[in-house]
């Protein structure tokens, strides 16, 4: 009641002061842009309600679902009216935006007219604080996303287990479920999951639980450039206090120093324990979890093959939605709980904390008159009042849209069906110190993920893993120092290094304009030379020819010759993102000698190459012989056409279909094995290190149709070209088909063999798309190839020079092998 | 010569081939089947027919995927037009004009066929990004995005690369035509460009069809290049778009499979018109090579 009174007074005040100055036509316009389309209906209603309460303000709501970042950035660049007043802040994070946003601190401490309370009192301030920058709060989280364990209540009842309270109980529960022939936990464990999924989350949660006592070692100290008395000064380490370190600001240089001098060391007992626990838990993951992505894990849980799964808060409403599609008898009761914490372990610091954060997080642009900015804040207050929160949830659910997680607004009454499922996501703290590589330095994260996969697969003992991980962390630390230009003195703020010397305008590899001029000049002087040296009518023809050929050769020179030349040149340089290339002689090639990933890749490539040659020559040849053995032309044509059908399916689709064929739970391959009674042979084909490469080789079985069709067509054409007189003379001597094939057909399609061998060779050395899509080189390094290494080096770690060097070596391999194959065939001809 | 006569050997070979066809087509058959099934049906009755037709799966797949397909078609059409135009023109020049420096130029062109795409992937990416005076770049190629995130970045490499093979194909074809055809027009005073346009092009339509199909299929199937160079979803092409379909939380397999099938429609159309030319192109190239 008081709130309404206050609001009325506020409105009266506003009307009184503003009405005189703002005419009905000239409403103050607030532009609100968001990507959160799930809230569309609710937001439209809230905006209408706000406009009704504040007739002098008009709110333009834009919901941009595609390319929000580009949309925002282009509007920022355009400036003026185009820039929204309120938008999803996390899309332009980075300190570049800080000066452009309105600090919310004062407003948070003032009364929200729509509740009558201090604004911050009705907000989840712990979440708000998580997004505080050094001095001010700029971001306002509206909702929160977090992960938890979801469990199948029916299975728990059947097995006779309760929700575990601690780690020991958790493992017991898992064991009982396993004994009852269910997979205890469904999880995604593919390469991507180590990067940005279940496995990555788990490692973050575990390492925070075991390593957060190191925070005092790495946080900013008095005298450091980013030290803040009110944030770090009061902090005392307390492992059990989930929020004690919420505000603490770490110092990157101290962190790196701690890694370098061994204060934080993967070989330390606490650090190792993270991975002991992880493996302990992995004993209860579904079989072949390495090959599973999130979708597969979810399917396993949905069809009640697994009792538990890691889900985010967004799954709460998603499950309700998904269950609508399930047959009633396939539905089950479910609940969720926080991952039970480890107790009775002297090494552990405290309970597990969350890895979550804000879903929709808004920031307000500092633009327009102070009056306008006040209105913008007023709208934000309205939007984050508990009443608005209730409308947000209610309308979104009515609209059948997902809700990302609990709102960051206190006192919002939730509908019963989701209220108890959201409980678990409240108030469990946020992980502060976790190691998944170091500081997200990409190369280090990659190397860590490879090591971790090898360790989890049992191919690397814990001590060796820790040893190698220590090296990886230190290498990563050194790279960070270089990349960020750190002087390792925590008291100074180091600006990012300006590596980029001005491009040398006389080096054609750095000056595109010069290169274009040179290319045109080259063609022109070649033309002029030949025109000069020809006479009469021929000169006229020559002039015409060079004019007509100019477009072709301009394109070739600019976009074919030059990149090849540039690749050659840059193989001998150190060339990083945003920097000019620096000549470094043979350094890249020397580095290749120590590149373990590259060498593992060579073995894999050889396996793919040899089997590829068999698949591309022998099989299509046999196929062609079989089809031509048929007497009926109609049958021949029919079979050829049938084998060609897969060719109309785009290559990417074929790959995706094959990745589904290998899927462990419902994939075609396992289904076929089950049907023919070989249930015991079913596998997670791409998930087991020893099976992944053979599975990729198996792809395309029986290797006749589709892309392998080229061989079949070429052999058929070749065999049909053999003059019938050759056969007739042979026919007199022998009836044996095999003898005919061996003595006549094979030698006469020698050229076709040569062509296919060369094509396959070139293809096999170059192809990484298949592996990129199916396994990304994993598990561990089981399916990596040199071309994929090149791709990763160049486009994931932006070491363009090193990538170019790998490319050059592969080019030399292709070129010399092609020549060798040619020579071999020539020799055969002579004999 | 060979007359039809039933033998056990024939029956055996037909049997083996039939088995191979079944194995080859099974994944695609199952894809069609799954595009009409709910996840529950796929899980519980993998081999069964869908309980009901769910054409709305195709509708929802279409909603998601159609703009990627349209983008792909736009790119492929541009590639085909440019490749066909340039290849037939330079093929004609190399075949029918006697000019100084011809052999050097032609070998220089053929040498490009030996350079693998892998070698040029990285430098090409950075060259398109740092191309001077394009996409906000200055004369040194800095400050903007160059060709990245534009349709041109998807078209140019296929044109530049595709015309090498195309020129080779067209030259061979033009050389097989009688010389007198062109001489008559030349005596009538037609320019070389006119001769090319009015005599050469109409004659080489079959070989151009082959070239068009090969270029179309090549451009339609490429994945890595658009993945690297285009981040703007509004111009993204099908192979990249389709990988997002399954990944972006779409857990119903039915619509995903439907999307796969819808993405095949352009290739089905192209092949149903020009399968003959495609096969001819492949086998002819092989005999020469």
Kindly describe this structure.
The complex is a heterodimer of chains A (831) and B (289). Chain A has 831 residues and is α+β, with helices and mostly antiparallel strands. Helices cover 54% and strands 7% of the residues of chain A. Chain A has 35 helices and 15 strands. A five-stranded mixed β-sheet of chain A has the order 2-1-3-13-6. In chain A, strands 9-10-8-11 form a four-stranded mixed β-sheet. In chain A, strands 4-5 form a two-stranded antiparallel ribbon. In chain A, α2 links the parallel β1 (28-34) and β2. In chain A, α19 runs antiparallel to α20 (462-484) and α32 (750-766) packs antiparallel against α35 (800-830). Chain A is globular, with a radius of gyration of 33 Å. Chain B is mostly helical. The model of chain B has no long low-confidence stretch (mean pLDDT 85). Chains A and B meet through α14, α21, α22, α24 and α25 of A and α1, α2, α3, α4 and α5 of B.
Compose a concise summary of this entry.
The complex is a heterodimer of chains A (831) and B (289). With 831 residues, chain A is an alpha+beta fold. Chain A contains 35 helices and 15 strands.
Question: Can you tag this structure with a few keywords?
Answer:
heterodimer; A: 831 residues; alpha+beta; five-stranded mixed beta sheet; four-stranded mixed beta sheet; 7% strand; globular; B: 289 residues; mainly alpha
Distance between the termini of chain A: 104 Å
Molecular shape of chain B: globular
Biggest interface pair, residues each? A-B, 120 and 108 residues
Quaternary structure classification: heterodimer
Q: How many angstroms does the end-to-end distance of chain B come to?
A: 30 Å
């Amino acid at each position: 009641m008081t709130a309404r009174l206050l609001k009325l007074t506020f409105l009266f005040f506003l009307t009184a002061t503003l009405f005189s100055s703002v005419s009905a036509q000239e409403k103050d316009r607030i532009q609100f842009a968001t990507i959160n389309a799930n809230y569309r209906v609710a937001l439209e209603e809230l905006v209408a309600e706000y406009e009704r309460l504040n007739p002098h303000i008009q709110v333009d709501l834009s919901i941009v679902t595609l390319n929000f970042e580009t949309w925002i950035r282009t509007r920022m660049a355009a400036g003026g009216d185009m820039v929204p007043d309120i938008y999803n802040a996390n899309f332009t994070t980075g300190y570049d935006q800080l000066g452009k946003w309105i600090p919310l601190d004062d407003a948070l401490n003032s009364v929200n007219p729509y509740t009558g309370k201090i604004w911050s009192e009705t907000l989840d301030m712990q979440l708000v604080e998580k997004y505080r920058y050094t001095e001010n709060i700029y971001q306002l989280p509206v909702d929160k996303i977090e992960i938890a364990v979801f469990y199948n209540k029916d299975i728990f009842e059947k097995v006779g287990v309760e929700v575990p309270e601690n780690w020991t109980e958790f493992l017991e529960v898992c064991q009982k479920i396993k004994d009852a022939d269910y997979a205890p936990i469904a999880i995604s464990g593919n390469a991507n999951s180590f990067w940005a999924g279940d496995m990555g989350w788990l490692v973050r949660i575990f390492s925070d639980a075991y390593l957060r006592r190191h925070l005092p070692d790495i946080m900013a100290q008095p005298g450091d450039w980013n030290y803040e008395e009110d944030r770090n000064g009061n902090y005392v380490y307390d492992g059990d206090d989930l929020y004690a370190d919420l505000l603490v600001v770490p110092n990157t240089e101290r962190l790196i120093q701690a890694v370098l001098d061994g204060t934080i060391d993967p070989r330390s007992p606490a650090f190792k324990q993270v991975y002991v626990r992880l493996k302990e838990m992995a004993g209860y993951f579904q079989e072949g979890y390495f090959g599973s992505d999130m979708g597969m894990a979810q399917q396993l849980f949905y069809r009640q093959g697994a009792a538990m799964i890691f889900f985010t808060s967004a799954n709460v409403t998603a499950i309700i939605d998904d269950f609508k599609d399930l047959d009633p008898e396939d539905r089950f009761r479910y609940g969720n709980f926080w991952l039970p914490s480890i107790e009775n372990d002297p090494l552990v610091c405290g309970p597990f904390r969350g890895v979550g954060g804000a879903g929709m997080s808004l920031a307000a642009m500092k633009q327009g008159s102070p009056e306008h900015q006040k209105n913008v804040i007023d709208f934000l207050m309205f939007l984050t009042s508990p009443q608005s929160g209730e409308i947000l949830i209610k309308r979104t659910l009515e609209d059948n849209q997902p809700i990302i997680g609990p709102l960051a607004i206190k006192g919002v009454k939730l509908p019963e069906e989701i209220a108890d499922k959201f409980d678990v996501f409240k108030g469990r703290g946020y992980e502060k110190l976790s190691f998944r590589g170091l500081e997200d330095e990409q190369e280090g994260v990659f190397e860590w993920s490879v090591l971790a996969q090898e360790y989890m697969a049992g191919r690397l003992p814990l001590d060796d893993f820790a040893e190698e991980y220590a090296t990886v962390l230190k290498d990563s630390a050194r790279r960070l120092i270089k990349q960020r230009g750190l002087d390792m003195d925590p008291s100074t703020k180091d600006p990012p290094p300006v590596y980029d010397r001005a491009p040398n305008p006389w080096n054609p590899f750095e000056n595109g304009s010069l290169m274009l001029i040179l290319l045109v000049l080259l063609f022109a002087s070649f033309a002029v030379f030949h025109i000069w040296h020809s006479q009469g009518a021929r000169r006229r023809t020559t002039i015409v020819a060079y004019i007509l050929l100019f477009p072709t050769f301009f394109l070739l020179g600019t976009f074919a010759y030059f990149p090849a030349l540039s690749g050659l040149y840059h193989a001998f340089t150190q060339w990083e993102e945003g920097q000019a290339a620096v000549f470094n002689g043979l350094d890249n090639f020397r580095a290749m000698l120590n590149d373990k990933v590259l060498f593992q890749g060579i073995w894999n490539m050889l396996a793919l190459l040899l089997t590829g040659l068999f698949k591309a020559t022998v099989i299509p040849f046999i196929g062609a012989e079989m089809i031509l053995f048929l007497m009926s032309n109609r049958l021949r044509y029919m079979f050829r056409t049938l084998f060609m059908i897969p060719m109309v399916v785009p290559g990417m689709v074929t790959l995706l279909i094959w990745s589904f064929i290998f899927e462990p739970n419902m994939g075609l391959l396992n289904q076929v094995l089950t049907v023919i009674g070989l249930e015991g042979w079913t596998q997670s084909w791409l998930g087991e290190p020893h099976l992944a490469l053979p599975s990729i080789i198996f792809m395309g079985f029986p290797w006749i149709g589709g892309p392998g069709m080229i061989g079949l067509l070429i052999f058929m054409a070749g065999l049909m070209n053999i003059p019938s007189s050759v056969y007739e003379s042979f026919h007199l001597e022998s009836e044996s088909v095999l003898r005919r094939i061996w003595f006549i057909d094979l030698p006469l399609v020698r050229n076709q063999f040569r062509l296919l061998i060369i094509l396959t060779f070139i293809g096999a050395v170059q192809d990484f798309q298949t592996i990129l899509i199916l396994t990304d080189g994993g598990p561990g390094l089981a399916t990596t190839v040199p071309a994929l290494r090149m791709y990763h080096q160049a486009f994931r770690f932006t070491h363009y020079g090193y990538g170019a060097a790998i490319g050059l070596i592969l080019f030399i391999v292709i070129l010399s092998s092609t020549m060798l194959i040619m020579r071999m065939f020539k020799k055969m001809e002579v004999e | 010569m060979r007359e039809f006569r039933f033998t056990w050997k024939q029956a055996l070979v037909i049997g083996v081939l039939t088995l191979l066809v079944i194995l080859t087509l099974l994944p695609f058959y199952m894809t069609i089947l799954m595009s009409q099934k709910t996840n529950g049906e796929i899980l519980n009755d993998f081999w069964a027919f869908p309980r009901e037709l769910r054409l709305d799966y195709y509708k929802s797949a279409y909603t998601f995927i159609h703009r990627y397909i349209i983008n792909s078609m736009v790119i492929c059409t541009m590639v085909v037009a440019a490749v066909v135009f340039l290849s037939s023109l330079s093929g004609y020049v190399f075949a029918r004009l006697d000019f100084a420096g011809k052999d050097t130029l032609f070998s220089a062109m053929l040498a490009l066929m030996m350079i693998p795409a892998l070698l040029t992937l990285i430098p090409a990416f950075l060259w398109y990004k740092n191309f001077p005076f394009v996409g906000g770049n200055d004369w040194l190629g800095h400050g903007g995005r160059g060709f990245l995130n534009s349709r041109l970045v998807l078209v140019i490499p296929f044109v530049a690369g595709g015309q090498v093979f195309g020129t080779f194909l067209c030259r061979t074809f033009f050389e097989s035509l009688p010389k007198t055809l062109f001489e008559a027009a030349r005596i009538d005073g037609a320019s070389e460009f006119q001769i090319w346009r009015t005599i050469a092009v109409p004659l080489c339509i079959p070989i151009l069809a082959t070239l068009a199909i090969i270029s179309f299929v090549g451009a339609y199937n490429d994945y890595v290049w658009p993945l690297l160079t285009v981040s703007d979803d509004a111009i993204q092409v099908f192979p990249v778009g389709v990988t997002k379909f399954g990944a972006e939380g779409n857990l119903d397999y039915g619509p995903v499979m439907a999307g796969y099938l819808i993405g095949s429609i352009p290739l089905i159309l192209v092949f149903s018109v020009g399968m003959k030319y495609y096969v001819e192109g492949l086998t002819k190239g092989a005999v020469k090579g």
